[in-house]
Amino acid sequence: xxxxxxxxxxDHQGCQTKFFARFDVSSGPLKYRGRxxxxxxxxxxxxxPETLFTSMDKARRAYIKLTNNDIGKIFWQA
Length: 78
Description:
Strand order of the largest sheet: 5-1-2-6
Radius of gyration: 12 Å
Distance between the termini: 22 Å
Helix content: 10-25%
Number of strands: 6
Number of domains: 1
Structural class: alpha+beta
Strand content: 35-45%
Shape: flat
């Protein structure tokens, strides 16, 4: 069985940080569990994806658009 890896955009409201992370779709519910990638926050979080991307290319394009708009802190953790 082939593992399906997806990229998703997550929004951590606690520190107003958005981040992209890769996760395995076949391992269970679509949820990120781990540390917030913001070094000033670094809390343990459990978040549902804001946006799900089917390819790395689409996720990178979205990342570039968000970083150019200066809407806040955006991290790439994929």
